[in-house]
Design brief:
Layout (H helix, E strand, L loop, with lengths): L1 E2 L5 E2 L6 H9 L14 E2 L8 H12 L3 H10 L4 H10 L2
Antiparallel strand pairs: 1-2, 1-3
Length: 90
């Protein structure tokens, strides 16, 4: 997850976090981030494979802004278990 200077959070997947962040910073990444200023990497984790990464990305994108901020502040070691715990809450 990347944070823009305005505080927005962007979620995506990649096999190389450093390379992808550099692409976003140079304006060659997602259109949504072009011209947004200096981006900050605030959360990343290994997913194991592309299929699981895509599924986790969808689940994270469905979180509310406050839930995403909580994720960033807690930095869980296992994102899949963390998301399951959120889903189990009333």
């Amino acid at each position: 997850m990347l944070r823009t200077p305005a505080g927005a959070l962007y979620t995506g997947i990649t096999t190389d976090v450093t390379r992808r962040l550099a692409q976003h910073q140079s304006g060659k990444g997602a259109k949504a981030l072009r011209g947004k200023g200096e981006l900050q990497l605030v959360f990343h984790c290994a997913a194991g494979n592309r299929s699981l990464a895509s599924k986790l990305e969808i689940r994270v994108k469905k979180l509310s802004k406050s839930q995403k901020e909580l994720l960033v502040s807690r930095l869980p070691e296992n994102l899949e278990h963390y998301l399951e715990s959120l889903a189990a809450r009333p």
